[in-house]
Each structure stands twice: as structure tokens, then as C-alpha cells.
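request received
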Amino acid sequence: DIQMTQSPSTLSASVGDRVTITCRASQSISNWLAWYQQKPGEAPKLLISKASSLESGVPSRFSGSGSGTEFTLTISSLQPDDFATYYCQQHNTYSRTFGQGTKVEIK
Amino acid sequence: EVQLAESGGGLVQPGGSLRLSCAASGFTFSIYGMSWVRQAPGDGLEWVSAISNSGGITNYADSVKGRFTISRDNSKNTLYLQMNSLRAEDTAVYYCVKGVVGYYYMDVWGKGTTVTVSS
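response:
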């Protein structure tokens, strides 16, 4: 099975900061990577698919990049609504593995 | 509006069984593959199982293989998860999730139903 590893596990940042989260796959997954945002008590929300394709309605401050085994999610200017946990998910194979999550906290 | 509404969660003893249901609305259910994803308390997301749009292809995580069965009734726009031989480690919120045609990612999530396995 493909393993997904996110870093950091927790990130402390301030409103307006540029934030980058990294996701690494245990083997190449081409660009088959999705990013989700989850707020406490809520279901996850799809932000990005195919590594860099922004979902409709997602603010343009979110962007994704990468291919092969290394990927990043960037928030260009952190807003109060962005404090949440972010998960990557490989969609290269049916097993749909998730990363362990990155919690973005208020500094 | 696309909506997914899970039901059937609850408290069950170890070794017991439970069947989850997910009522879908707002889209043509029979076109899309569906999945179940779970989240243990304070933990991350774990994909559990998926089913093709017709129901002819099913996949399972190793952690539930042989114990859980996914199925669907396209005439009722409903997805199911039959869970047998439940263990304490199956305790989680179970989300019903809509797939995207041709891809293995998921674009719409239900609110989830809680399963607690405890004596």
C-alpha cells in the first residue's frame, strides 16, 4: 500500500502568514493527490484534486503543487477561516490513502 | 443541492453487528462510485471501503476486509455498510462520501454517523 506522510503535524501561524504543508508519498503517484480541509465537528471539504486543480468555490489563496512523491499545499495569506486540519489523499490507487493530517493553529 | 445523510450508528458490543445507511439526493446516484471513510476519536481519516456505480466492483481496507460489506441500491439512492465482528478499534465517525467519475478522490461528504464499540 502507498503510505502518505504529512509535515508538519502541527503548524502555528498568524493571520496574513504564508503557510506551506508538505505531503510525501512512499512511491510515485504522478499528480494523483487531493487536499481536504476539516474544521472541528465538521466533515472534510475537498479543496484541491490532481495536485493543483482548485475546486469550484475554494478561495484562490489556496494552491497545490508537486508530482511524483512530493507535494505541497500553500495558503498565500492565512485568514481566520483557514484555521483547521488539512489532509492529503493519494488518488492513484483504489486504496485512497490519507496523510495523518496537519493542524494549523493560531499563533 | 447534493446531500448525503448517514444513519444507523450507535453503541454495539464487541463482536456485534451494525448496518449503516446513506441516503443520497441532489445528484444521479447511479452514475457515481461511493465510499465510506471513518475517523476515530481524535484521529485522522481512514478510507474503509468503496463501491463502483453499478455495485459490481468493491474494495476494502485491510483493517475491515472479511468483516465489512459495502453495497448499494440504486433504485433507492442508498449506500450501505454492513459491519460484522465489530472491534473496539472500529469506534469512529463513519462518513458516506461521493466519488468523482474516473478518479479515486471524493468531492462530497455526509455529516457522518457515530459508531461506538464497547461493552
